[in-house]
Design a protein that fits this description.
There is one protein chain. By secondary structure, the chain is mainly beta. The chain has two domains: 1-41 and 64-367, Beta Barrel (Cathepsin D, subunit A, domain 1), CATH 2.40.70; 374-452, Pdz3 Domain (Roll). It has nine helices and 28 strands. The strands form three sheets. The protein has a six-stranded mixed β-barrel with strand order 4-5-10-6-9-8. Strands 14-15-20-16-19-18 form a six-stranded mixed barrel. Strands 23, 24, 25, 26, 27 and 28 form a six-stranded antiparallel beta sheet that branches. The relative contact order is 0.15. Residues 103-184 form the Peptidase A2 domain.
């Protein structure tokens, strides 16, 4: 399964890793929030200057109450449930921006600002940029341009957020929709997790938002673990990498925007051993270039009473972190949704803990990687045109004669119109030695080939 790791502050997204850093926009974002607070302070004045100077011409300004700023549940609800899509190992939630139609946003614990990745929404909603900012990315190349839009209303089910500022990526450099196979319009994270006790129920695909003062932990809800919130991201330090009977303590980000099980920073200071069997891989591409690294298996992760064995882990090259101000030695990696989806997960930022309740059928599922060696992009109006983006050297896909630019039009006698990219990757992950029959279009030529699945790691 290929991984998308979109890194905006700590944003990581499935299925091919894309890194960028929001360090470049953070100062601007802080200044924007300050401007909003100053404006709200002036609006809360009961009387204008005219009122003070003339009792005959009192002009009372409408006060802006705290209820009209920030996120809350409507009708004074204490809890609400919001269905989500789980596609490409990502939690995709329904969001409306101002008066827009329902949009798809990725729920990510790592982003500090609400991000619009589809700039067309700005035009449709007649928004105006108040300033431009530059976003620095990992890899070689130039920064990208983004804009700041002030005071928007964000709606997600029975939750509403008033006067929210947005960061808008002007060009679709991330191409999230092509990776996910669904239209993706943005990313939302910290504001939700900081305001509510958030439960992600991967067994029912429901997001449960609850006012933190009404959420009470009970042992039957799962096992509780302390976390810290650093730079608006949740860190877990009660997890260990078990290798050769040695337990190596880890400090990791809990990253709902990551599709992988775990990514580890194997540098000298962290002392994390590289697996003996690894596969050189293009883990993804950042805003400023390609991200290279390795894939391998680790024996076990231990967290409390839970022992998770034989995981597929990614090991990005240290040279990939070519952004000023980023120190990857402060933590050892991050945990993504391929790990988290095996639990019902509750984040309680206010009291700084998470709750993990295992989903029994998921705990029995093995960790597998794409056994075909082919990486696809979903294109076309409905994202059912599956184009070969990359073929791994000496993989089953290369042996089957597949090349970059090929289009898969049938898979195991199913038309591409009848399957999603997530379903295709599930096929590629199951059954070592299993033949996968493909009909492929290359230019004006159509041919048949068979990919015999084989574990690469």
């Amino acid at each position: 399964m290929k991984l998308l790791w979109l890194k905006i502050m700590a944003l990581t997204i499935f299925p091919l890793v894309v890194y960028c850093s929001k360090q470049g926009i953070q100062p601007e974002d802080q200044r924007t929030n300050l401007e909003t607070k100053q404006r709200l302070g002036s609006e809360r004045q009961i009387y204008s200057t005219k009122e003070k100077n003339s009792t005959q011409e009192k002009v009372k300004l409408k006060a802006v109450s705290d209820e009209k700023f920030g996120f809350q549940l409507i009708k004074k609800r204490k809890i609400t449930r919001i269905p989500f899509e789980f596609q490409a190992n990502l939690v995709i939630v329904p969001v409306k921006v101002n008066n827009s139609d329902t949009l798809r946003f990725i729920l990510d614990t790592g982003v500090s600002s609400i991000i619009l990745t589809d700039a067309n929404i700005v035009k449709q909603q007649h928004m105006k940029f108040i300033r431009n900012v530059s976003i620095a990315g990992v890899g070689e190349g130039n920064n990208i341009e983004a804009g700041i839009v002030l005071e928007n209303t964000i709606t997600m089910g029975d939750m509403i957020g008033y006067r929210q500022n947005l960061v808008v990526i002007k060009d679709d450099v991330l191409k999230l929709s092509e990776f996910v196979g669904r239209p993706i319009h943005g990313i939302i994270g910290y504001e939700i997790f900081n305001r509510f006790a958030v439960t992600i129920d991967f067994s029912t695909n429901e997001l449960i938002l609850q006012n933190p003062e009404s959420y009470k932990y009970k042992p039957n809800k799962g096992e509780r673990f302390p976390i810290t919130i650093e730079e608006n991201k949740p860190y877990l330090s009660t997890i260990e990498l078990v290798n050769d009977n040695q337990n190596l303590p880890l400090k990791v980000i809990l990253d709902t925007g990551a599709g992988h099980a775990i990514s580890l920073d194997a540098n000298q200071k962290n002392s994390i051993p590289m697996p003996e069997k690894i596969v050189k891989a293009q883990l993804g591409r950042g805003l400023s270039g390609i991200i290279n690294g390795n894939l391998g298996r680790i024996p076990m992760l231990k967290i409390g009473k839970f022992e998770i064995k034989n995981l597929v882990a990614s090991f990005p090259d240290s040279a990939s972190y070519r952004i000023r101000g980023i120190d990857i030695t402060e933590r050892q990696g991050n945990i993504g949704c391929e790990f988290l989806r095996r639990f019902k997960v509750t984040f309680n930022y206010r009291d700084q803990y998470i709750v993990l309740k295992p989903i029994n059928r998921r705990m029995k599922e093995p960790f597998e990687h794409n056994m075909s060696g082919i990486e696809l992009m979903a294109r076309g109006e409905d994202y059912h045109e599956f184009m070969v983006d990359r073929v791994i050297e000496n993989s089953p896909a290369e042996l089957a004669g597949l090349q970059q630019g090929d289009r898969v039009i049938f898979i195991n006698n199913k038309s591409s119109k009848d399957v999603t990219i997530s379903e295709i990757y599930k096929i590629f992950q199951k059954g070592e030695g299993k033949p996968i029959n493909l009909m492929v279009k290359r230019g004006n030529e159509i041919f048949f080939t068979t990919v015999n699945l084989r574990r690469l790691i």
